Each structure stands twice: as C-alpha cells, then as structure tokens.
Amino acid sequence: xxxxxxxxxxxxxxxxxxxxxxxxxxxxxxxxxxxxxxxxxxxxxxxxxxxxxxxxxxxxxxxxxxxxxxxxxxxxxxxxxxxxxxxxxxxxx
Length: 93
Description:
With about 90 residues, the chain is an all-alpha fold. It has one helix at about 50-90.
C-alpha cells in the first residue's frame, strides 16, 4: 500500500509496532557520567525541538485556562439553579 492511506495518523505509532516507552528526548546525545546530557550537547534557543516544546507548553497552559473557565461557569450555573429551586420552595411552596 502506498499513498496517504498507508501512513498512520500523526502522533500514533504505525500499526503492529508498540509505542516507544522511556525513549530519551534526544536520541544519540552523548551523556555525562551522571547520565545527564553533556554540556556541549545541550540545546540552544535556536533548537526547533525546544521551540516546539515551548509552543506545546503554551498550548497546554491555554487549554487548561480555558477548561478552568468552563469549570467556573459550570459552578456559577449550578449556583443559579440551586438559588432558583430554593426561591421556588420558599415562595411557591
């Protein structure tokens, strides 16, 4: 099979292959004796992977902020419903 149908969806491992678990972020980066990336191999601000990671973190923060806003709105809506029910019980019996 060739063409777009033969390729797995973005972000998913190909069918029949297990997802990589515990793969270091930078494969092939020399490590120091402590298992840390060597100082000469540390990424710089011009690294596209680092820029993508920052953009990903920004998107995550934005999504979390949006979800928190939804949660606040839901709590407010529930409080209004509870207030309406309480008023109906008190005044309309």
